[in-house]
Amino acid sequence: MKTADSQPAAFDTATPAALPRATAPGPLARTVRRVADAARRILAAQRRERARRRQHRLLAELDNGTLKDLGLHRAEIESVVAELYGDSAPTRHHSDPDRISRLY
Fold first, then answer.
1. ∠ CA 100-47-95 to the nearest 5 degrees?
2. Assuming Cys at both sites, which of 14, 25, 49, 69 could form a disulfide with 29, CB separation 3.0 to 4.6 Å?
3. pTM higher than 0.85, yes or no?
4. pLDDT digit string (tens) for 50-84?
């Protein structure tokens, strides 16, 4: 930016070489990043657990006849939810696993 008398303004005289160079993050920046990463992991785990509980509640609210129509017994609800969320190895045979989805 030039002033009225065609002289460059003071902030225009800085060249890229005169600007401070980015350096590796210092200890404070690394600590902040670690804390932020930990907070993200905690929040993701909380979201996952809420979804898992919601899935369990939805299945538990179904009557025995509907569960039977789905090929499930009430005693299997916890196991089914654990399988859906990858907390246990699948123990049921699905004809087309790609078509299996969560209930919500």
1. 10
2. 25
3. no
4. 999 999 999 999 999 999 998 889 999 999 999 88
Q: What are 48's two structure tokens?
A: 């996952």
pLDDT tens per residue across span 14-32: 555 665 666 667 889 999 9
Q: Which amino acid is at 38?
A: A
95 exposure class (CB count in 10 Å sphere: 0-12, 13-18, 19+) = exposed
73: its two tokens: 């017994």
Q: What angle do CA 82, 83, 84 make, to 5 degrees?
A: 95
Give the distance from CA 82 to its chain's centroid. Answer: 18
Tokens 């160079």 belong to which residue?
A: 21
